Amino acid sequence: MSPLSRRALGAVALTALLVGCGGHPAADPGDRDRATTAAVRGHSTPGADSTPSPAARSLARSVPVGLRIPAIGVDTSVMRLGLAADGTVEVPPVEAHDRAGWYENSPTPGQTGPSVILAHVTVGTYGDGVFRHLDQLRAGDRIAARLENGGTAEFAVTGVRTVDKGEFPTEDVYGNVDRPELRLITCGGPRTGDGYRDNVIVFAALTSASSAGER
């Protein structure tokens, strides 16, 4: 789809997004209800929300199947995530072979609008999650999304924010934008029982793209 629809944005705003913090191997259904809603508490990297130049052309819809972030050693497959039966946004399962998940009501990477990918920071007794070091990214770091059609969408980080889960910037993350952008989300900050107090959000903009057969 192109930019996130008002209906999908409303669903996110109402149910909110708590990226699972992986306190235990068995996911706690209540964790998905400890929500996130609106406005920034936290910290931004220098150059946050800067605009890479030149801007890359947008891509046709193609579901992401992989994600590489060389600066923090991420190379993971990507699954689809929708809404759970209770209306909350799904999170990847807490398991030994952790992977990231793309929220399927957001644009695919490279389409105009904010494409949203989330993953765990820890996965219980299994150890570190895919996005364990997400907060170490800095403006200009590269992110590559591998697409189902064989193409690749490449992004540059424009900002990194740490926000209290009770003050989640829903509009900044899910609100429509006029260029292809990417949002990566995980947990962060101090531990609070089985979870974490904050969310870490990476903002990135498309810098280049290749279709199948162009690489």
Word description of this protein:
Residues 13-19 and 22-48 have low confidence and may be disordered. An eight-stranded mixed beta barrel has the order 1-2-3-4-7-8-6-5. It starts with 5 loop residues before the first helix and ends in a 5-residue tail after the last strand. With 215 residues, the chain is mostly beta strands. It is globular. The chain contains two helices and eight strands, in the order αββββββαββ. The protein is 7% helix and 33% strand. The longest helix has 10 residues, at 6-15. It has one domain (6-210): Sortase, Chain: A. It has helices at 6-15, 170-174; strands at residues 64-69, 74-81, 100-103, 113-118, 142-147, 152-164, 180-192, 195-210. It comes from Streptomyces vulcanius. This is Class F sortase. Keywords: Hydrolase, Signal. Residues 1-26 form the signal peptide. It holds the Pfam family Sortase.
Give a short summary of the structure:
This protein is mainly beta and 215 residues long. It has helices at 6-15, 170-174; strands at residues 64-69, 74-81, 100-103, 113-118, 142-147, 152-164, 180-192, 195-210.
Characteristic terms for this protein:
Sortase, Chain: A; mainly beta; eight-stranded mixed β-barrel
Rg: 16 Å
DSSP, total strands: 8
| Chain-averaged pLDDT | 79
Number of domains: 1
Low-confidence stretches: 13-19, 22-48
Overall spatial form: globular
The CATH superfamily turns out to be Sortase
**CATH fold-level name:** Sortase, Chain: A
Give the name of the CATH architecture: Beta Barrel
Classify the secondary structure makeup into a structural class. mainly beta
First CA to last CA: what distance?
Answer: 25 Å
The major beta sheet can be summarized as: 8 strands, mixed, barrel
Strand order of the largest sheet: 1-2-3-4-7-8-6-5
Report helical residue fraction: under 10%
